[in-house]
């Protein structure tokens, strides 16, 4: 490539990168707007400290609704994450031991919640749970979120397992270790990074999920995404921007954590 | 985990999740499929009529059934279900609400009046044929309605009248939007994935971070961000106004319409195109491209004849993923689509939550599921046959 073409190419990629992240960054300064508007005030543009305010952060911190929503989201994720991680990790370990044909079939069943549009899952869950009286309950949301999150755990743990050397287990067995203790002393430490990032995935899946919650949550089960939903749809308030900024911050922290986990896994692999 | 029976241990580990997904996911989906052809609501409200008409030969006016209808309507009045029944029947046949209301009111006054005396409508054999059909719990009418087809009194299938034809157009529009979104994602995602694959480790990490940040960010947050940018009093319009590029009356309608739906869907789905494509590109040996260049091919020719074909599997995987995901997208159109930017999923939600026409919601869902499964099963195979597998 000559230099002009190369410059044009990287300019294009820069624009695409801007398209990807700038919208997320625009909400950050706007969340400090002292006025109930969604655009920059002149005082903000002049970087006048008086033109910036924590008003909307105070509003969500003091709002009973937002606090209830946060508590609900965290409670749901607190059950979904360990449940999905346990089921998903077991399945990922088991899949490798199945003969090819049943393995492919089982993999299709496990992946099906990822392919089917969530709206259909939500519709079906509503039909399914209505006769049992489980709509407007945490139980329904937790079951559905676990079904959505567990396949991600299978995928992440499964990809860690592809680098796992089965001979290590044989070595442990020759050295007299019973299978269960070999699992805890050999397998588990080596696939721990995969399990950790699977658990992060499960947490984010549940914490971000809106459609199932929209169908199954009553007023008492409102989650953060539902709270944002009504903030965007019904009563557009800049408090939503403050919440959105906090969520971008949370995601950034989780991503950095995931990258650190991946790096430690790589260096652990290098030590091996 | 005995080494002698690896597959038995495998099953023991896999089964808990498979059982869980069967109960928590597959059973609900099966319930939805069932609901699209099984709708016992009217049957439950008119059990006697159902019994009487199940044995009817379809000729003339069945006297026995008239008594059954009288008894069912009286019971529905007594249990305050008459409004629901009238509304439900009216959905099957326009005008039945009035007939049921009038008849039920008269029966409350004079319980022994003959139906035909209350309203001449009851002497119409067509009405009885309709009743025979709608009191059966098994029905194809929801699926037919989802295809804009309706059933006449004598059982013939006809297209809905012009103003009530909605869903075929909506399915086509959804497919068209999905194709457009996939195309835009391909045009933006290909150079981006290439830049990731071709650059050094630190720039690559940065580019990866920039694509993963929106990928992991909540859909709600992303919709909020785009509303802030695109709305009539949003950042872009205010900016263009301040620069004097548009006038106060010339503010652009960038959101709450199909434009908004497409922009935000591309933003949401672009990472799903970039990531699989990048993983294919990162695994390609550079030797082919170098060989082509050293044999004297122009860079463009090398790209078109060597590099591009090698990356087809990534393009196919990313494109299929984006297309299938866009077919079922709900959150984004619901939040930024306004009235004109809605897709099939939004119509399903509408019938679930607002119009409470659950049978139709289930039927639309069944058709959408069929479309998605068909694509997910056939397209990868077609691609394989076309040599798109590395």
TrEMBL record, chain A:
Q: Which residues cross the membrane?
A: 7-32, 74-95, 107-129, 141-161, 182-204, 239-262
Q: Supply the CDD domains for this chain.
A: TM_PBP2 (cd06261)
Q: Which UniProt keywords apply?
A: Cell inner membrane, Cell membrane, Membrane, Transmembrane, Transmembrane helix, Transport
Report the principal subcellular site. Answer: membrane
Membrane among the record's keywords? yes
Q: Which PROSITE patterns match?
A: ABC_TM1
Any idea where this protein resides?
Cell inner membrane; Cell membrane
Q: Which Gene3D superfamilies match?
A: MetI-like
Q: Where is the ABC transmembrane type-1 domain?
A: 70-258
InterPro entries on file: MetI-like, MetI-like_sf
Q: Does the keyword Glycosyltransferase apply?
A: no
Membrane topology according to the record: Multi-pass membrane protein
The Swiss-Prot or TrEMBL record describes its family as follows: Belongs to the binding-protein-dependent transport system permease family.
Q: What is this protein called?
A: Spermidine/putrescine transport system permease protein
UniProtKB/TrEMBL annotation, chain B:
| Domain ABC transmembrane type-1 per the UniProt entry, residue ranges | 171-379
Q: What is its main location?
A: membrane
Mark the transmembrane ranges.
Answer: 12-34, 170-194, 206-230, 254-278, 315-336, 356-379
Which controlled-vocabulary keywords does the entry list?
Cell membrane, Membrane, Transmembrane, Transmembrane helix, Transport
InterPro entries from the UniProt entry: MetI-like, MetI-like_sf
Q: Which residues form a coiled coil?
A: none
Key word Transmembrane helix present? yes
Source organism's superkingdom?
Bacteria
Query: Where, subcellularly, is it found?
Result: Cell membrane
Q: Give the way it sits in the membrane.
A: Multi-pass membrane protein
Could you say which protein family the record assigns here?
Belongs to the binding-protein-dependent transport system permease family. CysTW subfamily.
State the PANTHER family in the record: ABC TRANSPORTER PERMEASE PROTEIN, INNER MEMBRANE ABC TRANSPORTER PERMEASE PROTEIN YDCU-RELATED-RELATED
Q: What is this protein called?
A: Spermidine/putrescine transport system permease protein
Gene source species: Ancylobacter amanitiformis
